[in-house]
Amino acid sequence: MTPLSRRAFVTAATGSLLAGCAGRAPERTAPAAHRRAAPSPSSPSSRSTAASGTPIALGRSVPVRLRIPAIGVDTPLLRLGLAADGTVQVPPVTAHDRAGWYRYSPAPGQTGPSVILGHVTVGAYGDGVFRRLAELRRGEQAVARLENGRSAVFTVDEVRTVAKAAFPTQDVYGDVDRPELRLITCGGPRGGDGYLDNVIVFASLTGTTTGTTP
């Protein structure tokens, strides 16, 4: 990470992080998913791993798409920066809702926590792209396709719902020694200004592929 991007990353991390929230419409209840074991992310010939079996960190390439098969997410990715108050931008509220990658975080597959944000609801437009994020379970997968044609495959380690007033800044944005992914949206009960909680998915890199993602 360059000195400039590192400063921006720290600035956002120390700000008021109420990320991934929008809309006044009541959240709709999503139907329960029929879950099955996740397929292998790639064949042995297309997966890059070290001798220990640990996936090798990728070089920096902008993520262009995110797929989370278990909850039906398949979204292009916007590039998000900083808002005027120094906090992380969130995607715009539109009918065709998309998630966004915080561009001052590591790219998916690089060492460090890559951060992607999305809405749970988008006002009068209804459900947001991350409306079912809280349904994710440990062991399920998220695949980030990169601009260079490679994909980073992450496996969920934990799904956490936290009060916005107690947002775990260090856990989300702090340094880690391996490629990880953070997915963030709103959740919990609604208050006067929106949702009171954040839903945060913590995932780690478990594979890489080239070409079309599975």
UniProtKB/TrEMBL annotation:
One GO MF term: hydrolase activity
Compositional bias per record (Low complexity), positions renumbered to this chain: 28-52
Entry keywords, A to Z: Hydrolase
Region (Disordered): 25-54
Record bears the keyword Hydrolase: yes
Record protein name field: Class F sortase
